[in-house]
Design a protein that fits this description.
It holds the Pfam family MatE. One of its GO terms (molecular function) is xenobiotic transmembrane transporter activity. By secondary structure, this protein is mainly α. It contains 9 helices and 2 strands; from the N terminus they run αββαααααααα. 76% of the residues lie in helices and 2% in strands. Strands 1-2 form a two-stranded antiparallel sheet.
């Protein structure tokens, strides 16, 4: 019984039908089809994913609240202190804590290294926006606004992070059990939930952006400048919510290397050059910098979505991966 429970996928979905000699219920899995699976919805799957994601979201929020409150306190000291605190926190998180995880196991270290590099590409690109904002005419104001946008997007990403972990687990679990239809359905539900919660977050941001900005600074100039960035911030939050789930799918399928190359392309070949073009050459300043970030996120979403939709899921077999290539298929 223990082996059967271990082999059963998490949140596994069944249709129950009466049958058998004893008149009991027989579990029958959904058939793997090549229909429009991205339009499917399942309330039970959604409830299971919410229950799975909620603890991770709460934990991530609680963890991020520590540096966030520190940044808010620094913002009360001045605009430059606000940007400096954000840069210091992010730099320490990406280069310090992330690279110290699981260093005692070589096989796990290989996976963690790829995952950290993949995630760090996006973090570092945002940090470079803070540095570039320091070259703007009003450097203190520019760096403060970019820092506030960065922290706001990070708060929304805590929600996406929970669903990214859910879909990574669900996809790998279902693919390992050979349940292709359930893996596709889990992707649809997770992406829908992430988007719905992102929209709810954006409604709160749209209605209370002045109140949110006032937590970072008591300067009316900063609050007004942040309000002008809100429409662009809404776009980046929506794109970030979808890419988080699609990146989780990539991890679940063993495509960590592919996701890392996608992030490198999106943020450093597309995003940052466009940020320089919009911000400096075209004179859009901090709005131009954030537009470049949006273009990078859009490119990342398009590549990951193309890979996800064009993948022949029936041919993915996680059990055939050898030890030298455990995390890439």
């Amino acid at each position: 019984m223990g082996e059967e429970a271990a082999a059963a996928p998490l949140l596994r979905d069944f249709h129950l039908h009466g049958g058998g000699d004893g008149g009991g219920e027989k579990a029958e899995e959904l058939p793997a089809t090549r229909s429009r699976w991205w339009l499917e919805w399942d309330a039970a799957e959604a409830a299971g994913q919410l229950a799975f994601a909620a603890p991770m979201v709460v934990t991530s929020m609680a963890y991020f609240a520590i540096p966030l409150v520190s940044v808010m306190y620094a913002g009360r000291l001045g605009e430059l202190e606000l940007a400096a605190a954000t840069l210091g926190n992010s730099w320490g998180t990406v280069t310090g804590i992330a690279l110290m995880v699981y260093c005692n196991d070589q096989s796990v270290l290989n996976l963690v290294t790829v995952l950290n590099v993949s995630d760090s590409f996006e973090y570092w690109s945002i940090e470079m926006l803070v540095l570039l904002a320091g070259l703007m005419p009003e450097s203190k104001l520019s760096t403060s606004i970019i820092a506030m946008c960065e922290n706001t997007q990070a708060v929304s990403y805590m929600i996406t992070y929970g669903f990214a972990a859910v879909i990574s687990t669900r996809v790998s679990n279902e693919l390992g059990a050979g349940n292709i239809a359930n893996a596709k359905k889990a992707l649809t539900v997770s992406l829908s939930l992430s988007l719905l919660l992102a929209v709810a977050f954006l409604l709160l941001l749209g209605l209370g952006h002045d109140l949110w900005a006032s937590l970072f600074s008591n300067s009316q100039k900063v609050v007004s400048a942040f309000a002008s960035m809100t429409p662009l911030l809404i776009g980046s939050v929506v794109l970030d919510s979808t890419q988080g789930v699609l990146s989780g799918v990539a991890r679940g399928c063993g495509w960590q290397h592919m996701a890392a190359w996608t992030n490198l392309l999106a943020f450093y070949i597309v995003g940052l050059p466009l940020a320089l073009l919009f911000g400096f050459t075209l004179g859009l300043h901090i709005k131009g910098l954030w537009l470049g970030q949006i273009c990078g996120l859009l490119c990342q979403n398009c590549v990951l979505l193309f890979i996800t939709l064009r993948t022949n899921w029936e041919k993915i077999d996680l059990t055939t991966l050898n030890q030298e290539n455990d995390f890439f298929c």
